[in-house]
Every structure is written in structure tokens, then in C-alpha cells.
Amino acid sequence: MRNLRLWATAAVASTLVLVPVTSASAHGSGSSDLRDGAVFVQLNAGSGNSIEAFTRSDDGSLTPVGEFTTGGLGGKEVGAPVDALASQGSLALADGNETLVAVNAGSGTVSALGIHRDRLTLDSVVASGGSFPSSVTTRGTAVYVLNAGGTGSVAGFRLRDDRLVPIPGSGRSLGLSNAAVPFFLTAPSQIGLTPDGRTLVVATKANNTLVTFPVRRDGSLGDAIVNASQGPVPFSFDFDRRGHLEVTQAGDGRTASYAVAADSSLVALGVSASSGGAALCWNVRVGSYLYGANAGSGTLTSWTVAKDGTTSVLAPVAATTSPGPIDLAASQGGRFVYVLSALSGQVDGFATHRDGSLTPAGVTTGLPTIDAVGGSEGIVAL
After folding, report:
1. Could you tell me how far CA 30 lies from the centroid of its own chain?
2. 217 in a domain, yes or no?
3. Which residues contact 39 (CB under 8 A, 6 or more apart)?
4. Beta strand 91-94 pairing with 254-260
5. β-pairing verdict for 120-127 and 133-139
6. Would you say the pTM of this structure is higher than 0.85?
7. Is residue 165 part of a domain?
8. Considering its fold, how many domains does the chain have in total?
9. Do the domain assignments include residue 22?
10. pLDDT tens digit sequence for 260-313
């Protein structure tokens, strides 16, 4: 529990980090069509959730297109100092990148929005199957939602004619306790499907477990398998090209690696050295590199990912960001990484390079900051 309190302290301390920021004013050439390159940010306001859409230029800079309602309410986990949802993956692309799926934590719903040239259209809003939905994952037309409230649960849906339809037999309880310490420290933080779509994974933070479910052909789920974490506070994860699981551990700043067995259980492969940053929580993979956001340090750390799935720290400080970096996303093809900060209401863009290094690609300002009832969280890129 000591590691959890250190994590919370580090996250709060991030408000004291001073980083010079200059808004990007020059935009490179590029399409004005969202489908040709875009970034979407969930604004997560308690009074009404919405998505801010941006087109992406050739140099990585962003141009706003508009704000589009999700038909639900944003929310905030009790006590969360930096990120309102305390999760990764509250937005996801689905159905061949033609649909954006968003959680509405404050109203217990999930929304599907169609992606068009210059706008998003609200196609469907359904109950999430639990309370405080905070993370969503997709494969094709399959959608699974993590409900962080209560004892935690997951629920599956299928996109049919742009509508979200529940998958019979896909609702499962996580059986967690969210009462021992503040909710944002104990609630589960991410849901994700393996690249082959056969296993569903949930990170549980304070319970120090990774819960997996076999996914049947019809989308229903098998019984939960509780896998022990290799370190404290497993927060976010991504998969490499071979299907290995790389998990950030907010309690010690390390990345842990796992193989996914045929029965959907996890096989521990080892952990990296520490990032050296404070409150390592979010990550994203680009090729054979992994990038993680240190919310308490205002930095990104980079790792190399070996063929066997193990990771090694490449650069403890691969980039400096706006204060309080939280959610992050890579563009399709991996040319750019975008980092969201709800403390400053900004998105920092970085160009990726073959050696894993990052260079600034503009800063987008003016997004909502975290407040008593919500705050920007959730980012995906095309």
C-alpha cells in the first residue's frame, strides 16, 4: 500500500513541474479529411461528454475540426489528482476505423460515433452493463467495456448497422474491492483484447492482478483467470507484434512482460529497469519501441521491445511534456505520438524516429483541464 500512496503523492506533485510550452502556429500541408489522419480527444465534462476532433498535417501538427457530443456524461473517480478516469483506453477505434467508441463514465453508457470527412455522427448510446465505464477495447466490430465502479465488471457488444448490440454471455464481474483506499487507486484501469481476439485482459491496479477471460467465437466469455502481477500497481498495457503483453507498473516505474498461453492465462517473462520517473501509468507501442508517460515527472520514457517480449529502458527521458502527461496514442503507421495532459489542457505531439528517439511536433492548447467532476481523458489517433 505504501507504493500506492507514493504514486498518489507523485501525481499531485506534478502540478509543481514547470515546463515551457509554445503553441504550434505553423501547420504543414495535409488533408482536411479526418479519415486521412486525425486525433480525437475525449473532453469528459461532467455536464456532458464530447469529443474534440482534429485533422493531422504532414508535420504532425493538429487543426481543430469541431466538438461532437457523445450523448452521455463524463465523470471523475473520487480523489483522482491528475486524470479524471484513472484509466487507459477510454476511446477506441472500431470497424475498420470507421467508428469511434467512447465511454460515458458519469451516465454509465457507451457511445458509437461514425467518422466522416469533416464530422462525427452519434450513431448509438447504450448502457455499459455496469457503473463508471472507464476503458473500452475493440477488434473489428467487437467491443468490450470495463466498468470500474463497484466490484468491477466487463461487458461485450457487437456493432451492427452502426448500433451497439449486447453480446449474450459476455458480462462478467471482476469481484474486486474498491473500498480499501481512494477509488482512483483501487479501481481497474484498462481492458484490452489480444491481437488474435481470443483473450480479454483487465489491469486491476491495487489488487496487483491481471484478470484474463477466454473469448469464445460468438464473443461470449469464459471464466475469469486471475494472474498475479510481477510488480505493484499494474496500470496500462499494450501488445507487441507477436502478441506479448507489456504492462506499466505505476508502483515501481517498471514495465513487465507476459506471454499469453493457449488457455488465456499469462506467463511472466520478466520486468525492465525502472523508468526513473514518477507515476508511470500510460503506455503505447510503436514498432519495436514502447513509450510511457510519467505523470509526476512531466516526461516520457522509451523502451526497446525484444522478440521474446521483454523490454529494456532505452531513454529514461525520451521527451519532456506539458505538466501531468496522462493518456497517449500513436498515429496509424506510428509516425507520431500524441500525449494528453488534463492539468494543462494540452496535447503534445512528437515525431518518432527509427532509433526510437522523439522530436517535438507541435502543441495543441485550449482543452478542458481536470476539475471536481471531470476533465479531458481519452485520446486516439488515425
Report:
1. 26
2. yes
3. 53, 54, 56, 62, 329, 331, 338, 347, 379, 380, 381, 382
4. unpaired
5. unpaired
6. yes
7. yes
8. 1
9. no
10. 999 999 999 999 999 999 999 999 999 999 999 999 999 999 999 999 999 999
Positive or negative, the Cα torsion across 102, 103, 106, 108? Answer: positive
Domain coverage including residue 117: 2-16+28-381
What is the length of the chain? 382
Going across the sheet that includes 299-305, the strands are 280-286, 289-294, 299-305, 311-320
Q: Which residues neighbour 231 within 8 Å (Cβ) at sequence distance 6 or greater?
A: 208, 249, 251, 252, 254, 256, 271
Residue 32 lies in a domain: yes
How many CB atoms neighbour CB 162 within 10 A? 15
The closest alpha carbon to 278, from 261, 259, 298, 264, belongs to 298
SS3 labels along 86-132: CCCCCEEEECCCCEEEEEECCCCEEEEEEECCCCEEEEEEEECCCCC
Rounded mean pLDDT, 245-253: 96
pLDDT digits (tens, 9 = 90+) for 86-102: 999 999 999 999 999 99
CATH label of the domain that carries residue 41? 2.130.10.10
Neighbouring CB atoms inside 10 A of 220's CB total 16
